[in-house]
Amino acid sequence: MTTGQSRVARLVLPVGERDHIQGPPDAQATLVEYGDYECPFCGQAYPIIKAVQARLGRRLRFVFRNFPLTEMHPHALKAAMAAEAAGAQGQFWPMHDLLYENQDALDERSLARYAESLRLDVERFRSELRAETYASRVHEDFMSGVRSGVNGTPTMFVNGVRHDGPWDAESLTAALTVAAHTKAS
Amino acid sequence: MPKLLFENGVRLIHPYMPKESPSVLSQGVVAPDFALSSGPGQSVTLRELRGKPIVLVFYPADWSPVCGDQLALYNEVLPEFHRHNAQLVAISVDGVWCHRAYAESRKLRFTLLSDFEPKGAVARAYGAYRPIDGTTERALFVIDEQGLIYWSYLSPVGVNPGADGILEALESLSKRRVA
């Protein structure tokens, strides 16, 4: 075991079947976000990523993985499980968007309300939340993040490498464009 | 006059002072013992922690946003550290009352130690003092059961090093124990 002086943090769990993905599988650039639904910085990143997706179109594939900081954010874990429960009924992304658009209302009653508004089977949704059906999946996301060098929320990976720079729309678009060109060449 | 470089308000390069500690203590070196305050009227020595792997985290300051994320992350990953039977202690030059308020506010479930007087003496012994800022560096150590440094890492001060390096070191240490 050697003493390390510099490390490049890389995604250890490749994007695959288990992931929630927007964009084509053969996109030149892949952005993976590890996020927490109650984290205000992730809330700031939410519209930025939408803008970046609009700019890059089909050149970009976006993946969201859960990284709830449960000690700091009491509703983060339930919210993550709610998104997964919605995902089990084919509505992950609409729930993901609702959660980020309503970060100040993530209590259980609000979560059920969002499920209703998405016309989910609310009984199933509620019982899966109560049974913590998706806790292990959320933990799997979390640990894959820890092992990949996630160091706060949001942490983003551009084509598998941790993006340590700023993540305003311009910087993120630039980083993804460079990554897309590198991959294409 | 050489230019000063700033990042997030932190001075990176100063013409007259070393940019950072030349190097942190590395593998195989005996971890220097210390006795530091863990709270008003309480202290912790490295010697009394011996017998289990120790994760020693030097971080520049309570309350600063990067540290906040770093220690919040370790707070979440704590069960993984415990799975390897390791204990986590974090050290900065902040005083005990500051540490107490910080730990309460962030609900930290591990010990913060004050390298307060003489300021930074323990950090200096580990090669993890940052004279330009008068704070500790952002440096990580994994110390084995015998008190030898097993792994160390000096992070750029503005970059949160995450927990992956620590977990890799603890895993490797567990394997060594089994072998």
Brief summary:
The complex is a heterodimer of chains A (185) and B (179). Chain A is built from seven helices and five strands, in the order ββαβαααααββα.
Please specify the SSE layout and strand pairing.
The complex is a heterodimer of chains A (185) and B (179).
Chain A: E1 20-22, E2 29-35, H1 40-56, E3 60-66, H2 76-88, H3 92-101, H4 108-117, H5 122-130, H6 135-147, E4 155-158, E5 161-162, H7 169-184
Parallel strand pairs in A: 2-3
Antiparallel strand pairs in A: 1-3, 2-4, 4-5
Chain B: E1 5-7, E2 10-13, E3 35-39, E4 42-45, H1 46-49, E5 54-58, H2 65-83, E6 87-92, H3 96-106, E7 111-114, H4 121-125, E8 129-130, E9 135-136, E10 138-143, E11 149-155, H5 164-178
Parallel strand pairs in B: 5-6, 6-7
Antiparallel strand pairs in B: 1-2, 3-4, 5-10, 8-9, 10-11
Structure description:
The complex is a heterodimer of chains A (185) and B (179). Helix content of chain A is 48%, strand content 12%. By secondary structure, chain A is an alpha+beta fold. Chain A starts with 19 loop residues before the first strand and ends with a helix. Chain B has five helices and eleven strands. With 179 residues, chain B is of the alpha+beta class. The model of chain B is unreliable at 1-5 and 10-21 (pLDDT under 50). Chain B has a five-stranded mixed β-sheet. In chain B, strands 1-2 form a two-stranded antiparallel ribbon. Chain B has a two-stranded antiparallel sheet with strand order 3-4. Classes of the chains: A alpha+beta (185), B alpha+beta (179). At the A-B interface, helix 6 of A face helix 2, strand 11 and helix 5 of B.
